[in-house]
Amino acid sequence: MTGGFPGAGTINENLARAAADVGVAMGVGSERAAVLKGQYPESYSCVARHAVPLKLANLGAPQIVPQRPGDAVVGPDEVRRAMELIGADVLAIHLNFLQEMVQPEGDRRARGCLDAIGTLAHRFPVLVKETGAGISRAVAESLRDRGVKAFDVSGTGGTSFAAVEHYRAVERGAVREARVGKTFWDWGIPSPISVLELVPLGLPVVASGGVRSGLDVARAIALGATAAGTAGGVLRAASTGPEETRAELETLVHELKVAMFLTGSRTVAELQKAPYVVTGESRPWLHR
């Protein structure tokens, strides 16, 4: 979720302790700062001290291909360091090209990313995740064929990083990038639709993007997702203290159990078969 700046270590310490206590998975934010620049490695390494049941390291797709002559590129050695830093079980490679297009200093070269991901996926267990724009079935199929083991859809409905970078661009006087951020503010595939598109591929699918409660987790699982990821509420709790973080995670789990009780689902596998109705802005996507 975070890392690589002063104060991030406290947040990740709170998250890791609570995740270990409650028994949920945890992913850190991009480890680029630590593995390529040697900055704030302790903001990530604190996670390794806790028995989190599933830990996800995190590096960006733009960093695995050369952006400019002389740029450092993430390869197997850097991936290994990123995973060892937190004792990770899985490497998450995030796709954030919309965000990069809005950043004045963005890394915008994507040529070769699919093959580079495939190269890493044959050496490490790789999950590919988006950062707010969703993953299409075509992209997922291409990644699956290259050895990727799982997906985190991170569709629209949660944080818009185009919006975040729009405001940063405005502050920096980057007129064109600020306009691009505003134009593409809501660009992407809704999280529920991305889940429905990827589940038939037969690989684990994490639903994220707009997941704010245990009921949202239940909804995602009913659509066929293997698990769900959330950030905002937990991040606010982790910025406060360890007890607040644990309470937030326990509440999410309790809400999920309430939804399971109300649908007569004794197990997550049964919840995956519960009937559901798609409404709102997601509904037209099913009939496109």
Give your account of this protein's structure.
With 288 residues, the chain is an alpha/beta fold. It has a single domain (8-156, 189-287), classed as TIM Barrel. 45% of the residues lie in helices and 9% in strands. The chain contains 14 helices and 7 strands. The chain has helices at residues 8-22, 32-37, 42-45, 76-86, 97-102, 113-121, 137-145, 161-172, 175-183, 191-198, 214-222, 232-238, 242-262, 268-271, and strands spanning 26-27, 55-60, 90-95, 126-130, 150-152, 205-207, 227-228. The chain has a 7-stranded parallel β-sheet with strand order 1-2-3-4-5-6-7. α8 (161-172) runs antiparallel to α9 (175-183). The longest helix is centred in the last third of the chain and has 21 residues, at 242-262. The protein is globular. It starts with 7 loop residues before the first helix and ends in a 17-residue tail after the last helix. The model has no long low-confidence stretch (mean pLDDT 96).
H and E order: HEHHEHEHHEHEHHHEHEHHH
Q: What's the CATH architecture name?
A: Alpha-Beta Barrel
Uncertain runs are none
Largest sheet composition: 7 strands, parallel
According to CATH, what is the topology?
Answer: TIM Barrel
The dominant shape is: globular
Structural class, by secondary structure, is alpha/beta
From the N-terminal CA to the C-terminal CA, the straight-line distance is: 33 Å
Describe the structure in brief.
The chain is α/β, with parallel strands linked by helices and 288 residues long.
